[in-house]
Amino acid sequence: MKKYGLIGKDIGYSKSKTFFQDKFVQENFDGTYDNFELNEIDELPTVLAKNNLDGFNVTIPFKESIIPYLDELSDEAAKIKAVNTVKIIDQKKIGYNTDAFGFMKALFPILESNHSRALILGTGGASKAVAYTLEAMGIEYKFVSRSPKEGQLNYEDLNENDITDHKLIINATPLGTYPDIKQSPKIPYDALSKTHLLYDLVYNPTLTEFLAKGKIRGAKIANGQAMLFHQANRSWTIWQE
């Protein structure tokens, strides 16, 4: 029996376990998938030693901090500098990034010609995959951060012109994730219009506060459900290769 799982913190909201358990049934695959809660990434070696995993997914907040614990990175993961999928072969841990693949597959069908400039809310591991994807698609972007580095925007300084000038806005933070469903990034929502596309990487709940505030102002919205589906299927393919 093959053993897989999800590494993360406060991951009771995640649908990955259900997805893969259903996937194993559909594929008639003899395997298990479990959640492994970590408070700190340095707990990872103990978890791996106890569970003899064949591979695992990685979620917030460990997509970047896990890299020193891996033996090898795929070219894409190395460029993005974030990992959400790990394959273990003879105790060798190889890191991949399927978030970029999942995000592109989910975004492309709903993208319109005016969505040529984007704001990425957040600067964590998920945001790096988003930026990598936008760059590949020729879409200009700026990061918005609580602690901005050079070239990034500060939430406190974000104004209506910034929103007007960027018709694609992506929430790459965990804000609004169940159970804290009343939270949302602090942006000037009144500047949103029907020409905007709001994409939330959060998928639980289906309609986040971020998306609801956009929808009521006529913006096009999408949650992270399709991205989850595509990136998870890509993880499955990697594990079976």
TrEMBL record:
This is Shikimate dehydrogenase family protein. The keyword Glycosyltransferase does not apply. Gene3D superfamilies: Leucine Dehydrogenase, chain A, domain 1 (3.40.50.10860), NAD(P)-binding Rossmann-like Domain (3.40.50.720). Coiled coil: none annotated. Pathway: Metabolic intermediate biosynthesis; chorismate biosynthesis; chorismate from D-erythrose 4-phosphate and phosphoenolpyruvate: step 4/7. It holds the Pfam family Shikimate_dh_N. InterPro entries: Aminoacid_DH-like_N_sf, NAD(P)-bd_dom_sf, Shikimate_DH-bd_N, Shikimate_DH_fam. Residues 6-86 form the Shikimate dehydrogenase substrate binding N-terminal domain. The lineage of its organism: Bacteria, Pseudomonadati, Bacteroidota, Flavobacteriia, Flavobacteriales. Keywords: Amino-acid biosynthesis, Aromatic amino acid biosynthesis, Oxidoreductase.
